[in-house]
Write a structure and sequence with these properties.
single chain; alpha/beta; about 50% helix; about 10% strand; elongated; disordered C terminus
Length: about 400
Amino acid sequence: MRGDIHILVVVPVYNHGTSLAGVVRELLGHAPHVLVVDDGSTDVELWGELPFVAYTEDAPQGLYLERHKDNQGKGAALLTAARFASRHGFTHVVTLDADGQHSPADVSLFVEKIHEDPMRLWIGERDLGGPNVPFSSRFGRAFSNFWVRLETGFPLADTQSGFRAYPTVLLESLTFTERRYSFEVEVLVRAAWAGFCIGELRISVYYPPGGERISHFRALYDNVLISLLHTRLVIRSTLPIPGRRIAEDGNGQVSLLRPVASLKLLIGLRRTPRSLGLSAALGFVLGALPLIGIHVLLTLWLASRFRLNRPTALAAGQLCIPPFVPALCVEIGHYVRHGRFLTEVSWQTLGHEATQRLLEWLVGSLSFAPLGALILGSLVWGGAWLVHCSIVPLKERS
């Protein structure tokens, strides 16, 4: 692909007539192929005399137009652009907003990065420390960054930026449920799950004064959609079933009932024996602790924070489900506190003295979890190393 790269710059637009013409005219000075996707705008009379041409094989370089009869959302506009790009042989799509927030001159930065790494999704990281940046933008970016990192493990700085470069194959190959603003979060998560690397580059940004700003973001409706999306993505990320890899091929699921097959799958997805062993140890420690109601969320966050394998950590945590490990921890904790084991199981010991049992669970888990994690982590590490040796040629291991 490095020697045959064709880039289409895309501007999705919905009622940005006052800024569109200026953005497009400046873009044409930096990009030979620009596509405007009109998402059902009703202010077309404000667009000015933009020189749209129909795309044919012998069409001159210029500006092209795709239209939606009705407003379908920014995500739908970007998918329309991806289909256009695929039909006409464009290998990459660079997207930027029509409101004048982004500098068209920064397209050259994306072109350089595309040639540097064609299979990477590039995001323009905005500096939100300038004037006129609303608090909602800063908070929304931080909120989105947290959840995307939890879902993917990628510590991205600006998951809400609309200035991006996509390999066309990424948008063609993946399946998306979102069609509005939430699409730009979903595409990052699903791209990461599919094996695409994500990079960021610094871009300039301009926020006009509040009274001049054009935004179609509906605070309540769109935030509800984004929250529901993150709920679905977090639940999906807890399932030990890797999705189909586009950039790195592989399919299957991680299961405690199929340890060898699971290790082969994870090693095939470029997980090292060491990282798998550490992932299992982390999952066991968190599973043994009395983290009622937050165990899964904390496991996901810590595994993402330390770039460990989340399915392995979650699977290891399942070894600690009640009643066996919690009961063992309570017994150990009771012995540590009182010098004897708890032998009476009744409403008194489990009901009225529940807070005492929780304390003993905590004390016992702090004693038992490190040992269990060491044993399990060593077994997974050793098993993964043996599987790794059986499927990876010696010259690759060296």
